[in-house]
Design goal:
This protein folds into three domains: 83 residues, Nucleic acid-binding proteins (OB fold (Dihydrolipoamide Acetyltransferase, E2P)), CATH 2.40.50; 159 residues, P-loop containing nucleotide triphosphate hydrolases (Rossmann fold, 3-Layer(aba) Sandwich), CATH 3.40.50; 73 residues, Probable gtpase engc, domain 3 (Ribonucleotide Reductase Protein R1, domain 1, Orthogonal Bundle). It is globular, with a radius of gyration of 23 Å. 31% of the residues lie in helices and 21% in strands. It starts with 10 loop residues before the first helix and ends with a helix. It is of the alpha/beta class. The longest helix has 44 residues.
Amino acid sequence: MINLNIYGWNDKLNQLKQESIHKSLYHGRIAIVHRTCYEVVSENGLFQCELTGNKMFGKPDFELPCVGDWVIFQPFDESKGIIVDLLPRERTLYRRKSGTVADKQTIASYVDKAFIVQSLDDNFNVRRAERFIFQIIEAKIKPILVFNKADLVFDKEGIMEATKHLVDQVPMLFTSIHLPHTIYQLRETIAEGETVVFVGSSGVGKSSLVNSLCDIPRLLTSEISSSTGKGKHTSTRREMVLMERSGVLIDTPGVREFGMAIEDAGSLAEILDISDYSESCRFKNCKHMDEPGCAVLEAINNNTLDRKVYESYLKLRKEAWHFSTSEHEKRKREKSFSKILEEVKKRKSNF
């Protein structure tokens, strides 16, 4: 018998299950997503599950079950089942799907903390970190910035200077699998029953960190590339791993680009530590572009606000606006198409 409380099951989830018409069936959490099936952890063990036809077809990909989702399923033998319901998601991390303007991809759900991993072998990029942080905070997930491979020679003062505008929003840790005390500090941030996700670029050492946290190898890792001197990309899927006497880890494949899937950029100024200036602007709806009496622009001219932070703010705000506008237009088209389908159905029923 598996205790699902250590996987995050709680009274609120139980109440949500009682509201389902399938409340008498088994429930569990998705640990791994394959192309056509899902590995679900339940009180009665691990089940290989598929979706019912009405759950599979006609839905956008981001509405299909993902790692971390809680589902209700009907078992049909000792290790197989059919997913019949998906409990409402909370704290779901998305990213904009590559090559699209408004489509989004689900990374994981029911996440408590997200570790943004950047390695100290020339991988550090504060602009990339800001992008992750904004998406994570908007999902009501706590971000933690992890600088990995801290056994290497690196400019710590330079990194702290580049991230000083984030320090009030995001805890920062320096880690290395070769420095056990740093792994211990990382482990201490994860409580039993919590779910944490590791995100970042390829080769930053996410899977190695997960293996170190679990004390035994759980995920595939690779050697350092002889041509680049960096870790090779190893994770090819999202996978949930249970830590002993602690929480649940979700490792994710490395991404070259992390496009934001945000519909409201209202909190961006606060996240990038610009809000203290923007509150002093002459106009409440100041866009901080060329308006008279803009305190943000004045702070840039006085060198009290980093111009690169300001430029990042403008870029991320524009990207969020494009996603929001495109998403709104897409919903309008889908709604219009649904009306047409309903009218066609009515006409057919009249004949």
